[in-house]
Design goal:
With 604 residues, this protein is mainly beta. 5% of the residues lie in helices and 41% in strands. The longest helix is centred in the first third of the chain and has 32 residues.
Length: 604
């Protein structure tokens, strides 16, 4: 019985082994039939050792300084759109240089721009793949360094942010030109680089600052030659690019053959080499001490000017008017312009490039930058440059929105109105360019010319005339204000003044009075005046030979009389005859001169 039980157990064990083997074979078959992974790796990337030197930079500035690199892909390690190894020449791949905070790029963390020599455009890391340059495989499906350089830049001066590591990685991502999502391939084991801060102020306590150097005299080199900054007396490549002209939009001013510009760390000695030869020869190592300047290496003077102060910008039609304070040692000023970054691929993973748009003489304190889009905000900064071409740090940035100039005129139907009367204001809004589509004009009033209050707002239509009635209670100043719109500058009209008269009742007096005997004369006054004040006079005219002649003027005293004042005066008339009494309120700061109706009386 015991032997039978053992035999059955062995049979069951054999069946289990067979089942396991069958399952393993099935899994192997499924694995072989499975598609390529969503993202794969190839062997290669930036050339680490090309005749003893790297073909990529160890330090990368976080601004728009341009770098060059060469990369490889080992034969048979690239895959086509279906995931099969590529072993033949002529396979096309889009090339994207990414600087990633991790060895495996992910999501929106990477930064970088890649230069497309065909479209002559810088392509941001998150742009569509078909915007990037194309490279093709050689023999065996490999990509070799040859003499093909890929240009790139970091382009985000907000990175590395607080608590981020300054160690990032250069990833050369490739995608088959006939591929799509899920076919991207990244170089395995990407080299680490150090991000340095061109602004010098992002993280001053723990992030190495950067500055630029360029040739302060002709290099004697031809165009498109290797130029690099290396550790002094070493071969470690800190920065690498190609001399001008190399077909790349660099964004700086030097364009003569053999010119260069490199970004290097502040506080560390370095040499510049052109085609492996130290330049200038012989030259001591150079160490910079100030961030965000551009030093004329090789010049006798390597001290940059200070940053210009007090930069201001005033909007004009399609232009900006800039002004600033003088800087000692400035041979000229370079004006830089940019606009706010716009999202690429749903994210804004870059800061705008500050492009040089104008140069003015060192004696100048202002300039006009034209050709700007009206209604769009533009930013400006300036730098001073000395005779040796050392360029100092930037001024504080200013913003301005150019717009079409507009003009407002204002007139009034009457400068003086009776008490309770109205004047009609009429104005016109005109534009130096396109008409204002839906202009809104403010009608404002003031009593002193300095403090203005909104009276009403009027929406205008072509031809932009405005008419509104006003009923001033005292001398009032009026103006029109157009605050502007997306493409038009605001405007303020001329000022008009409307002054009311007081309401002055004609004198009340007896129809007949005795010569030389006093009688009382009085009348109403609106608005009410201060009790005891003397704002009204009575003019006394006598008729002689059919002509009224002024014979006497008396000053009255104001008294309360309900909701108005009453002017009162007792006086006598000196001679017999027909007389006419007329009340008169002289001009004041608040009211226009006012004359009442006449009261006729007989003096006996």
């Amino acid at each position: 019985m015991h032997r039978l039980t053992t035999t059955a157990s062995r049979r069951r064990s054999h069946r289990r082994v067979l089942l396991v083997l069958l399952a393993a074979l099935l899994l192997l078959a499924l694995a072989q039939a499975a598609p390529a992974p969503a993202a794969s790796e190839y062997v290669g990337g930036p050339a680490v050792d090309n005749q003893g030197r790297a073909d990529y930079p160890l330090y990368i500035a976080n601004d728009h300084t341009v770098y060059a690199l060469r990369f490889t892909a080992a034969a048979g390690t690239l895959r086509d759109k279906d995931g099969a190894p590529v072993t033949t020449p002529g396979a096309g791949y889009y090339v994207k240089v990414r600087i990633s905070p991790t060895a495996t790029p992910s999501g929106g963390a990477s930064r970088g721009f890649t230069w497309n020599p065909v479209t002559r455009q810088w392509v941001q890391e998150r742009a569509d793949w078909d915007e990037f340059p194309v490279v093709t495989t050689g023999a065996g499906g490999a990509i070799t360094t040859g003499n093909t350089w890929t240009y790139f830049k970091f382009g985000d001066t907000t990175k590395p942010a607080a608590l981020d590591s300054s160690t990032w990685y250069i990833v050369v991502s490739l995608q088959p030109t006939d591929g799509g999502s899920g076919t991207t391939q990244n170089n395995a084991s990407p080299p680490a680089v150090e991000i340095i801060d061109m602004t010098g102020g992002l993280r001053p306590d723990d992030l190495t600052a950067a500055f630029r150097v360029h040739n302060g005299m002709p290099t004697g080199a031809s165009a498109d030659k290797r130029v690099e900054a290396t550790a002094s007396e070493g071969t470690e490549v800190w920065a690498i690019s190609r001399t001008q002209a190399n077909g790349v939009a660099q964004g700086y001013g030097t364009v003569a053959a053999g010119d260069f510009q490199l970004a290097v760390p502040v506080g560390l000695p370095f040499d510049v080499k052109i085609q492996n030869n130290i330049w200038p020869d012989p030259a001591p190592s150079f160490t910079g001490s100030v961030a965000d300047v551009d030093i004329a290496l090789g010049a006798d003077d390597v001290t940059p000017p200070a940053a210009p102060a007090s930069l201001t910008a005033t909007a004009a039609d399609g232009a900006a008017l800039l002004s600033w304070s003088a800087v000692a040692d400035a041979e000229k000023y370079v004006v830089y312009q940019w606009q706010a970054a716009t999202p690429v691929g749903g994210r804004t993973n870059y800061t705008p490039h500050h492009v040089a748009v104008a140069e003015v003489d060192g004696a100048a304190r202002s300039c006009t930058v034209a050709g700007l889009a009206n209604g769009s905000e533009h930013f400006f900064e300036i730098r001073a440059q000395d005779a040796a071409t050392n360029t100092g740090p930037p001024s504080a940035a200013v913003a301005v929105t150019p717009n079409v100039a507009t003009h407002l005129t204002l007139a009034t139907s009457a400068k003086v109105v009776k008490w309770g009367g109205r004047a009609t204001l009429s104005g016109e809004l005109s534009s130096d360019g396109p008409d204002v589509s839906e202009p809104e004009v403010r009608v404002e009033r003031s009593f002193n010319g300095s403090t203005w209050k909104l009276l009403t707002t009027i929406d205008l239509t072509a031809p932009y005339a405005v008419g509104t009635a006003v009923k001033p209670q005292r001398t009032t100043l009026y103006r029109l204000v157009f605050t502007g719109d997306a493409t038009h500058l605001g405007a303020t009209s001329n000022v008009v003044t409307v002054t009311p008269k007081v309401k002055l009742g004609k004198p009340v007096a007896p129809a007949r009075v005795k010569q030389g005997r006093k009688f009382a004369a009085y009348g109403g006054l609106v608005p009410k005046a201060k009790v005891g004040s003397h704002t009204v006079r009575i003019k006394c005219y006598q008729k002689k030979a059919g002509v009224w002649r002024l014979k006497k003027t008396v000053t009255t005293t104001n008294r309360n009389h309900g909701k108005q004042s009453r002017y009162v005066r007792s006086f006598a008339l000196p001679s017999k005859g027909t007389w006419k009494l007329v009340a008169y309120a002289p001009k004041s700061a608040k009211y226009a001169a006012t004359t009442s109706g006449a009261r006729i009386l007989k003096v006996q």
